[in-house]
Amino acid sequence: MSRPGPKIPPLSVTDAQRAVLEGWLRRRTTAQALAQRSRIVLECAEGHSIMEVSRRLRIAPDTVRTWRRRFIERGLDGLCDDLRPGVPRKITDADVERVIVKTLEETPKNATHWSTRSMATATGMSQSTISRIWRAFALAPHRSQTFKLSTDPLFIDKVRDVVGLYLDPPEKALVLCVDEKSQIQALDRSQPVLPMVPGVPERRSHDYVRAGTTTLFAALEVATGKVIGSLHRRHRSSRSSSRSWTRKSRLICRFI
């Protein structure tokens, strides 16, 4: 006479749990493994046996038995994967702080900024570790930017006037932004540029010939984005202000 197997504890699902399980099934972004576990629990909650659920879902009976038991013991949390132990951290929070403080408050000897190699040598860490720490805290010692602070007490009011004119110009008004760029070096290559041929890119000599400097006057029509400009070979310091406005006025007349 065969002995009866162990009694299987009943599985019941509350309305709140059923709503969560059905939501996991409907959601497209749910992982396939979690969706399958949700189906197992819902099928078992309908009163189906382990073998019936195994046949209906085409999975092994042990898989049904495992997730059925975990749901009974731990509820919805039992359907999620357990955290797997990994390699313990070798870099502590104190090490990370030391790298950040050193990057922000110190500079290396005989250099203007830190590199991953010099920081790794100074801290005893690897270059890849230094790179990961810098990326995590958005640090880039090799990069720099410029800035300009205005000392004009009416600077904010002037900016508002100019920006307001650009954004909301008067009706039927022509709004232009005019400026000049002086001391532009006029350079030319010492030899003619060799054109591109199959298998060989365009080539040009590495040295150049200086042809003095030039000044660029440009005007931007704000409404259409049209830009016109003119180049002037000389921009002498004497009477430069009056000459500059004269050339700008001529440039503006080309729009009218």
From TrEMBL:
NCBIfam families: transpos_IS630 (NF033545). This is Transcriptional regulators. It comes from Streptomyces chartreusis NRRL 3882.
